[in-house]
Every structure is written in C-alpha cells, then in structure tokens.
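My current task is to audit a protein record that another person submitted. I need someone to confirm that the token line plausibly describes how this chain folds. Take the sequence as given and treat only the tokens as open to question. This is what I was given:
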Amino acid sequence: MTTAPAVSAARDTVAIRSQNLCRHYRMGETLIRAVDGVSLEVRAGEFVALLGSSGSGKSSVLNLIAGLDRPTSGSVVVQERDLAQLSREELAKYRLHVVGMVFQSFNLIPSMTLQENVELPLRFAEVDRSRRQTLARDALERVGLRARMEHRPSELSGGEQQRAALARALINRPQLLLADEPTGNLDSHTGTEILDMVREFNRELGMTVVMVTHERALAERYAERMIFLADGKLIDDRPNAAAALDLRAEGGES
C-alpha cells in the first residue's frame, strides 16, 4: 500500500496483556471452561502463534482479543484499553480501527466484487468514496490481485479469496492482525504464500500478529514465539529461536 505504515509503537511496548482471563459458559448442566485463567503478554510487532488441539481454547482467546466475546472474569488489555470495560459501540470502533481479522473461511460477500469486498471496512468508517476506491486498489495490488478486482469470489481460487480477505483485513492499516487458522482451507503451497505475505506485513509495517493454528510446523516457520494451550489453560510459552534468528538476519544484525 502506498500509505503510512500501520504501526508506530516500539517493539519493546506491550500490545496485548491478559490477566487471569476466563471465558466460561454453560451447555446444559455442564460448565465449559473455554478459557480458564490465561495470563500472557504480546509485545508490539511480535508474530505469535497460539497452538493446541481442537477445543484447547486458542480460538476463544483470539475472539476475546478481537473483542468478539467478553470475558467471564479477568481482563484483556489491548494498547492500554481494557476491552471488558468498552461499550458495544466502542468495541465496534476498536475492531474497525485497531484490529484486522482473517479466518479459515474467507467470509467474502458473494454478490460483491473483490474491490467492493475490500472497501467494506472503509464504508463503515465513512471514508470518502474516491479514497475508498484508491485504497482498495492499492490493497489488492499489494496482495497480487489488482487484475482481479472486478471479479466476484466465486470466480477465484481459494488462495485468491484468502488474499482478498487479507487485503480487506489490512485496508484500515490496523495495528493488530488476528488470524484464525488462515491456511486451513488451502493447500500447503498456497498456505505458504499467504503466510509469507503475513510475515512481510509483520516485518515491513511493524504489525503485531497473533495466529491460531494447530500446525506446529507452520508456527515454527513463521512465529517468533509459540504459546501452547490445552483445556483452556496456557501450558507453555516459548521463543522460537529459528524464526528469531531469521528475523535478525533479515535486519542485518550480528
């Protein structure tokens, strides 16, 4: 994109902090502890992977960070804002301006062209129409889809649809990109292309990335840090030495 970088926060600042974060709900007579006392910090500009088997709580944690769900107890603070204390209107603005989201399902609107899909967050932000079109074209060009912007989702491959979803997630230049199994519906080659783009945005724009995945190989290839969850609890949090070394090498550090 030709506009300013997404993030200006220094890497040594804390972007996300949760303290004894819980999300419990009832299913009949059973209490489901989807998130059960998770405390963690993510620094600005980090690429972090949340790993665990199905039902481990990783997507529930991501939804709480996204402001799509509210904690039962504990707190999740993003850029010094306690999300549990925000009103519905404030959470909507938070998701519009601070967070970009990419999911396993591409969530593109079938009746809209790619350009119209990518413009959608700008419409909600009441950006002028001519500027929306320019920003959408720039975003689609960045993910290699400028020639496809008048096509509809059904005319695209799965990889192209996910690239369009990524362009839409980045159109408002969010500080935080949340990705929930972003390669789950893609073959391995296309999934690698998508995560290469995500890593590029993370490194070039300083964007904080939190990715949910059950594929440890992907986490080891892309994430600087791996956080493991099981039964709603954080069971391990470790740096990824290989990704950190790769990042230092790209930055020219010794």
Observations:
- The two ends are 30 Å apart (CA to CA).
- Strands lie at 14-27, 30-43, 47-51, 73-78, 81-82, 99-103, 176-180, 208-213, 225-230, 233-239.
- The chain is about 35% helix and 30% strand.
- The helical segments are 58-66, 88-97, 114-124, 129-142, 158-170, 188-205, 216-222, 241-250.
